[in-house]
Design a protein that fits this description.
- By secondary structure, the chain is mainly alpha-helical.
- Strands 2-1-3-4 form a 4-stranded mixed beta sheet.
- Helix 3 links the parallel strand 1 and strand 2.
- The longest helix is centred in the middle third of the chain and has 37 residues.
- The chain is elongated.
- The chain starts with a helix and ends with a helix.
Length: 418
């Protein structure tokens, strides 16, 4: 009996996979769309970022000729220009404010040279930022401006300390010891287990967040396939032939669910490759080294989790899909589940589920998508017991939901959609 059941399932699954392989456009778009579109988006974004420099304006309001002010401005312009930024000097603040191409304004206020050379006053400069869509680039430029001014300020303070030391007759001294008697050393990274972290340990959480975000793209292709496999076959009048075959309704639907999970798995692998390429293009364009770190075990774990996530989603949606008459209605129902999954996976991109309070954490365990997120995040933290527990939960839930869903269906309802 079991051999006959396995044989029927194998034949039906072969039929479903054969249909997938025959639909060259479905396979091609499932694989190539994320692989081509996401890197292309990354390349276009990087290209536009290159050709859209952030413009910095320097407004000097310090009246009269001053050697110190001129020296300060020359050093600021030289440092920022060397860093690849576009720097212009504007005569008055009003003109700089009216010029929409200027993103950041550095104001040298009146009395700057007096304060900068005195021993009892601080010389302040002001920064004005224009609100816009290039916030990230302006943030980096502002940090470059701050670093440049800090470097110039250190040079100025060194000159003051040497002058004071000469006046005080102090021969042995350290500028750094006087200026910064207490300092913080470079932070040391450790793993969740408290061991010294390697570069890949620091980057792995970011990769895990990417993998969680990629779950957002896997549900739709699988839902479309299962909708076409049931509602589409009904509309093409081929459902009667399938139900009249020796294979039972249960066998037919199990084969369709597994086949839908396979197409979802293919979409998942293509999506994650596309996402890695997208961020790789962007980070490489910005001088990063993100693509240097790659964890094959994490990617494989993600693929298996994606398969289980799709299996659960399709199993939950199949009783509703089989009772709808049209593809549009079935798509709307599947879309509701996609929205729930999207909400969890986007929050998993930003929220560390592993560190939520016990009450919230326990409540979320009832939702299968929370386990998909926990599998990835627990792996990053090295909590393999939690990984095994969440994987086991998804496996058991998939089988339980699929069994319950299939046992509530009848041939007449699947055929007539009632």
């Amino acid at each position: 009996m079991r051999l006959k059941l396995a044989k029927k399932l194998r034949i039906l699954l072969w039929k479903e996979l054969k249909e997938i392989s025959r639909d060259k456009k479905l396979v091609a778009t499932t694989i190539l769309f994320p692989l081509v579109s996401l890197p292309a988006i990354g390349f276009l974004t990087a290209l536009l970022l290159y050709y859209q420099p952030v413009v910095i304006a320097i407004v000097n309001e310090d009246a009269g000729p001053s050697t110190v002010t001129s020296w300060f401005i020359e050093n600021v312009v030289s440092a920022l220009t060397s860093a690849g930024h576009s720097v212009v000097e504007v005569d008055d603040l009003e003109s700089a404010l009216r010029n929409a191409t200027i993103d950041l304004i550095l104001i040298i206020p009146g009395g700057f040279h007096e304060n900068a050379t005195s021993f009892d006053k601080v010389a302040y400069v002001e920064i004005i930022r224009r609100a816009g869509v290039s916030e990230e680039r302006v943030n980096r430029v502002e940090q470059d401006v701050r670093n440049t001014i800090t470097s110039i300020s250190l040079s100025l303070s060194e000159m003051k300390i040497r002058e004071l030391a000469e006046k005080a007759g102090v021969e042995e001294y350290s500028v750094e010891a006087i200026r910064n008697p207490v300092q913080i050393k470079v932070p040391v990274y450790v793993t969740p287990k408290g061991e010294p972290a390697k570069p890949e340990d620091i980057v792995r959480p970011f990769i895990a967040r990417l993998l969680i975000l990629s779950f957002s793209f896997i549900v739709t292709p699988a839902s479309s396939f299962i909708i076409d496999g049931i509602v589409g076959e009904r509309e093409r009048k081929t459902m009667e032939m399938l139900l009249a075959s020796p294979a039972g309704l249960w066998d037919m639907l199990v084969a369709k669910i597994v086949a839908a999970s396979v197409i979802g798995l293919i979409a998942s692998l293509a999506d994650i490759l596309g996402l890695l390429a997208y961020f790789g293009v962007l980070v490489t364009a910005l001088g990063g080294w993100f693509m240097a770190v790659y964890d094959a075990r994490l990617v494989l774990l993600h693929a298996f989790t994606a398969f289980l996530t799709i299996l659960v989603t399709v199993s939950i949606s199949i009783p509703f899909i089989t009772r709808t008459r049209g593809i549009k209605t079935a798509s709307n129902i599947a879309g509701l589940l996609s929205i729930v999954g999207l909400a969890f996976f986007v929050s998993g991109w930003m929220v560390d589920f592993y560190k939520l309070s016990r009450e919230i954490f326990t409540a979320l365990l009832a939702v299968p998508y929370a386990h998909s997120i926990l599998i990835i995040q627990s792996y990053v933290y090295g909590d393999y017991n939690m990984v095994a527990a969440s994987v086991s939960f998804l496996v058991m839930l998939s089988l339980a939901v699929m069994t319950i869903s299939l046992r509530t269906l009848e041939r007449e309802k699947v055929l007539l959609a009632g």
